[in-house]
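For reproducibility, we list the full input for the adenosine monophosphate complex.
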Amino acid sequence: MEATRDRAAWLKGGSAQCNIPAEEREAPWRLVLLGAPGVGKGTQAELISERLGCCHLSTGDVFRAAKTLDECERSPALNQALDCMRKGELVSDETVLSMVKERTKCLRCGGGFLLDGFPRTVAQAEALDELLESEGLALDAVLSYEMPIEQIVERLSGRRTCSECKAVYHVVGRPSKVAGVCDHCGGELIQREDDRPESVKVRMETYERSTMPLIDYFKARGLLLPVSALGTVEEIYSRTAGALAARRAE
Ligand code: AMP
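The corresponding predicted structure, in tokenized form, follows.
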């Protein structure tokens, strides 16, 4: 399946277009990814997107892309969102939802989608349900990546992200071929501001308080597919693909 790396419409919003054909693919996947920061969700999202053809839509990436705008080009709501992000706190549901609603065409895309980092609260999950229903769409599954907390902290401290294309690496677990340089686009690899120790602590607490309840929410709707996030990237992907194949076979 052809890779769907073009996320212009998602990252920029507004009238930006991507190069994914709009026609419906056969059985496109419409997925949500859940998991604490650092479980390797972003890496799995890239693989799923490449191999199953659905677009990787990360709300965190939209906020990070907005950081590159001049301060005067950003709305007050966006500046406030970036401030929350720096501290590792959640951006308000209102801001996140208006940003997602502006990008509804990405949910409608015939290639399917893979939501990463959204929904993050039960209120966001309810709003997503409404949005999809109004478009005549439904989720196929919610993949929930699970890992013990000590390993999560170790992962976050070694995580590096491409400043250009947002590809994710780890200094030990998934190094780039040339240290500090992205394999895909040659961009500089950086440590995200919110991967610093003081932000990581807040993010883990926030995850437990706001995002864990989503597991029950999606379980009650029969959508939850728990996946162990231990092992190599390929092992985790193979569990993911197996869980999705079993879901389609049901
Ligand atoms: P992520 O890359 O998904 O870990 O997101 C990075 C940061 O962006 C989070 O720590 C939040 O500050 C903000 N953010 C991203 N998505 C959401 C969301 N759905 N709800 C609230 N805040 C979000």
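The chain has eleven helices and eight strands. The mean pLDDT is 88. Both points were considered when choosing residues for closer inspection.
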